[in-house]
Each structure stands twice: as structure tokens, then as C-alpha cells.
Amino acid sequence: MSTLQNDTFLKALMRQPTDYTPVWMMRQAGRYLPEYRQSRKNAGSFLQLCKNADFATEVTMQPLDRYPLLDAAILFSDILTVPDAMGLGLYFEEGEGPKFERTLQLEADIKKLAVPDMSKLQYVFDAVSQIRKTLNGRLPLIGFTGSPWTLATYMVEGKGKTDFLTIKKMAYARPDLLHHILDTTAQTVIQYLNAQIAAGAQAVMIFDSWGGALSHDAYKEFSLNYMQKIVNGLTKTNDGRVVPSVVFTKGGGLWLEAQAAIGADALGLDWTVDIGSARQRVGAQVALQGNLDPAILLSTPEAIEKEVVKVLQSYGHGHGHVFNLGHGITQLTPPENAAAMLDAVRTHSRQYHQ
Amino acid sequence: MSTLQNDTFLKALMRQPTDYTPVWMMRQAGRYLPEYRQSRKNAGSFLQLCKNADFATEVTMQPLDRYPLLDAAILFSDILTVPDAMGLGLYFEEGEGPKFERTLQLEADIKKLAVPDMSKLQYVFDAVSQIRKTLNGRLPLIGFTGSPWTLATYMVEGKGKTDFLTIKKMAYARPDLLHHILDTTAQTVIQYLNAQIAAGAQAVMIFDSWGGALSHDAYKEFSLNYMQKIVNGLTKTNDGRVVPSVVFTKGGGLWLEAQAAIGADALGLDWTVDIGSARQRVGAQVALQGNLDPAILLSTPEAIEKEVVKVLQSYGHGHGHVFNLGHGITQLTPPENAAAMLDAVRTHSRQYHQ
Asked: Peptide bond before A291: cis, by omega within 30 degrees of 0?
């Protein structure tokens, strides 16, 4: 493997000194970029972008080529590759979110759920290898997964962005069934992330997109516990380097103390949290990643710079901050506004690292 | 006015001693009740239920007749009566949420926005009077409104449950325009709630359904500030009684300290917050209302009782707690499960008031 030329991101995740605050953007390879839209057209579908290593590499590299100030690459893929490999039949309808052909609602179906053979996800590991080769040490590569709770919401409800009533009914009426789903998914995810690491992922992130829909108690029981199992099961070093992990529960700002205790290196924050208060609450246990509202990128370069400065000021002096949006960049973002954000982070963050 | 026979709810809002924890349910007059579905059929539409005082009274009374353990009535209406009166043209399409014929996005349209004549909302005040007459002192009646931020999201986006990108773009690029909308709406809401109080509402609640979509800073600037203006402008006593106020930001659990400081008597909590921690954070400044996840009512009477006990235990001994769901009851709730919740609250709460 070639030498890593920019390890600012990895150092920040481990709260080691850096010269500036590193930055990347959730969903940085995405529909706001015209070159991405072209690749998607060429591939024919979103799933083909994910399942073909050439396309996945192409779109992973696009934001890096456009924005020299990015400090990390992230594997282009989807969290739903895992339930797809578990046999649920992922598909997309144009203009709608992802859906599954089968759902897990009946006891008999749930009891049949098993950890799939990782060969079904070989296309993901192939993409990781090819991206690493293409990066050639330019930037570190992030691998990722959905959290077991988040993946289970799709598996039980059959789609995302629901009211979660079917899965919550299961959580309260038949917690044994839900725990079986979550446990099987957690075991799958451990193998999945470790195979990504073996293929070359230099950091890993667990996206808990729907943990914030749970009550404080239920969050610990049905989401955080399983993320802890995953963190415990992760390969800690590869190729002579620590592989840091980031846990991100959208809407989970009330539970940062509990999140900080599961052993991950960093926590992702959405924009509802004041990052300075978050830092006070979790102390020196973890690095923090976030947390500009992606909607701000729809405004003006002046407003963007002002809001970037507020986040940097709020985190304050010292290391352990990875700048990011509080959620994925929206497809309506003018690409030059993303550049304005990256510029502002680099310009204004150096003073906090002196 | 007839003597109030059960003032447990009003006392709890003012943190005065009560024998048990009073309870009501957000959206207690709603689609989970077969008698409500029949009334709606008779009325022809949801809006007709709101705009006809006989129908509004009929459905307001339905849960009270079914559940003798409820401690408050709430006016049957909709938060969108206000933007409708402000000229935006509210309508409902079957199977979809509320929509508006016109939206506020152009500067010229926004600058024309004005406080409407309250005569346009006379049907609401008529409903309040008629419900009070029908209640005949049996239970106190709650009036309500949406928060200016929440109402503005509908006025700018044209519908609810959006990604809020249009209004957030305005918030960051043209805050002056958004402040004009919010200020005009806040002035309208003050008149609206005071007219509800004059007509007989004995407590008022401000629903900030979408405040949780904002960043911590933006929440204070665009939502909380305007709720504070409203609280400052409210009639404090009527007919010899204090008229307590409740402020509820769904998804606002991170900001309870700021909410507690605006002068309302109570805060509503959704289920993501541990009510015991919330009590520690806001001390004796305000009463707390909440916060069972409404999804729990889809499970079993045994699970419901267990979860009710957890909420009561978490709040602990002493007064100042109004039991409620953390959001509106879902239409899928079996009516007998709501009864199980009410029974559990009455049975298990007395010990905390001794």
C-alpha cells in the first residue's frame, strides 16, 4: 500500500494534533454534482453505481477531483446492501426511496434470518480495493454501514422515512423477535466492516439514521447496544495503522454520554446539537464530527462562512474535531457553495490548532 | 360559568399539590375512535369538523364520554386555521396532509402579510364557547395554536413534513423576510389565543411541531423567541382563575433550559427525553407534560402498564407532572389500549403524590 499523503482526518479522529480542522461531507459523491448525475445516467441506476466497482470508484473520486480541500474519501455505496444480502430484495422506484420486496414481520420469517455469506457483498469489497488503488495514498478511505436498528427499520417496515409503528409495535409487544433481527444484523455488520477494512478501508462509520425515533430507554436497548457489539467486534488495526470508528445517531443529541461510552473513537453530530456543549458533555473520550445544517449550503457564501465560523468557534481550541455537515448534502446544493464551506473551514480553523 | 369539578390538570400545570397525576392525550379526539370516524363522515370533511361548532363540540366530547379517567378536554381544531385566516387557502386532499393554495416565497407576497381580522376565526371561538357550555364544569378546556415557526413552515413550504429546505434557505439567506412572517404570525397568535381564553379556554398550549428541525442557534432565533413573545402577550387570568400555558417543541429535548426560561407554566416533552432528567434540568421553573411514545399503545396492556410505570417512576415523587403521550395518538391505536394507559396512570400515580 502506498504511503498516506494526508492523514489529518485519521489523526483528528484519534484526537491527535493537526494543523487545521479536517473536513469531508456526508454524501459528498451525490446528486448535487453534475458529473455524478452523468455517471448515474451512464450506469443506468443507483444500484448499478453501487454494484459495479468501476462506477463506484468513479463517483467516489468525483468530489475529490473537484474539491482539493477535502480530507477524506468515502466509499460510494448504500447502507441497504446488507439487508439485500440478507435476502430481502432491495429495489428502487424512480423518484421514491428504497424499498424491499420482502419484509420481516412474521415470526417464521424472522426466525429464518441468518448471517449471509460475505461473498454476496464481494462487490463492495472490490469497490473498496479499487478505490484504494485509485486514491494511491492521496486521502484516507472511509468504509461504512447502517446500524442494526436502522437496517432493521427497513427490513421490518419495508421502506425508510416511516412512522416506525410496525417495528415499534414489535419492540414493545415482541422484543424477542426484534432482538433476533438486531443480533443477526449486528453479526453480519461486524463481518461486513471487517471485510471492508481488510480490503482497505482506513476508518469506518456506523450510520444510525433512525435511532432518534426511539425513546431514551429503547434507544439503548435496540440501537446503542448493537452498535457497541459492532465496535467491540471490529478489527482495530490494519496495515500497521489504527482503524478509527465513528458512530452517528441522527437525532441522538440527548444521548451523547451513552454513545461516548461504547468504545468508538468519534461521534457524529447533527446540527441540533451545539458542538461546544457536546464537547463539554463527552470530554476527552471521543472526537466529534459535524455539524453544519446542510440547508445552510443553499444560502450564500457569506452566510455559509459565518455559520462555519460559529461551528469552529463553538468547538473551540484544540484537536479532535472533524468538520462535516450534520447530515447528507442535499441535491439542491450549488456545487460552488460546498466549495465556500470547504474554504471557510480551512481558512478559519488553523487558529484553533495553534 | 359553572364551578370546575376537576381541576387536577390545572393544578398540576401550576405545580400545586394533586392526589394523582392528571392525564390527557394529544389528539384524543381522533381517528382511532370509531365514533370520531362516524362524525367525520357525517360532517363530510375534516375542515367541516373544525368549522362547525356543533361538530367540533361533538368530537371534543367523544373521548371524555368514553374515558372517564381523562382530566382535560382539548378544543377540536387544527393549527392551520391561523394561516388559513391569513389568506393562504388551506385545503386537504384525501389521504394526504394539509396543503395551501398559496405559499409565501416571494418578497412582495411576504411584505403583504398582515394580522387578519379575528372575525375570520370566529368559528373557533364559537366552538370554544359551545364546548365550555357542554362540559358544564366537568373538566377544564385547553385551547391551542401552532408556534409561529411551525405555522411559517406550512406557509413557506406549502405543506408539512418536508425537508424544510425552502424555509431554511430563507432563514439563512433572507432572515429579514422570515422574521417578518414570524412576527406577523406571533401577533396574530397572541390575539387568537386571547380570544380563545375570552371564549372560555382555561389553559393554552403552543405546538411547535417542527422546531426540532432547526439548529440550536436557529431554534432560538426563529422559534423560541416568537413563542416567548406570545407567552408575554397572553391573558394571564380569566374569570378569576390563572390560565396556564404549555409550550411543546417536538424534537426540542436538547433545549429545555432555554424553553423553561420563556415564562410558560409547563413544557411538553416528546418520548426521546427521559422525564426525570428533564425535571433535573429545568428544576422547579415549570411543570412537565408527557411523554409516553404513542407507538407503545399499539402493543399490549401489560407492556403499556410497564412503560407507564417507567415514566411515572422517572418523574418521581412530587407534583407538577401532567401525563400525556409524547406526540398525538396514532389512528391505529386500539381504543382499549388507550384505556389501559389511563388506568395505569391513575393506579400507579397516587403513590408519587403522598
From this structure: yes
Give the containing element (helix H, strand E) for B156.
Answer: helix B148-157
Would you say residue A2 lies in a domain? no
Full domain range(s) for residue B81 = 8-353
Among residues A19, A74, A7, A16, the alpha carbon closest in space to that of A265 is found at A16
Neighboring chain B residues of A215 at a CB cutoff of 8 Å: 271-272, 293, 326
In-domain check, residue B292: yes
Cα separation, B5 vs B72, in Å, equals: 11
Q: What is the pLDDT of residues B275-287, one digit of tens each?
A: 999 999 998 899 9
| Contact present, B55 and B49 (Cβ < 8 Å) | yes
ipTM: 0.95
In this structure, the number of other CB atoms found within 10 A of the CB of residue A19 comes to 12
The domain tally of chain A equals 1
**Cβ distance of A217 and B253 shorter than 8 Å:** no
Pick from B169-173, B270-274, B282-286, B332-336: least confident: B282-286
DSSP string covering A271-312: TTS-HHHHHHHHTTSSEEEEEE-GGGGGS-HHHHHHHHHHHH
CATH of the domain at B167: 3.20.20.210
- By the 10 Å C-beta count (0-12 exposed, 13-18 middle, 19+ buried), A300 is classed as middle
Q: Which of B7, B15, B20, B27 is catalytic?
A: B27
Q: How far does CA A148 lie from the centroid of its chain?
A: 13
> Cell digits for B230?
406570545
pLDDT in tens, B202-246: 999 999 999 999 999 999 999 999 999 999 999 999 999 999 999
Alpha carbon separation from B38 to A124, A185, B49, B73 (Å, rounded): 53, 44, 11, 20
Q: Distance (Å, rounded) from C-alpha A52 to C-alpha A130?
A: 11
Specify whether B31 is catalytic. Answer: yes
Task: Examine residue A178 and state whether it is found in any structural domain, yes or no.
Answer: yes
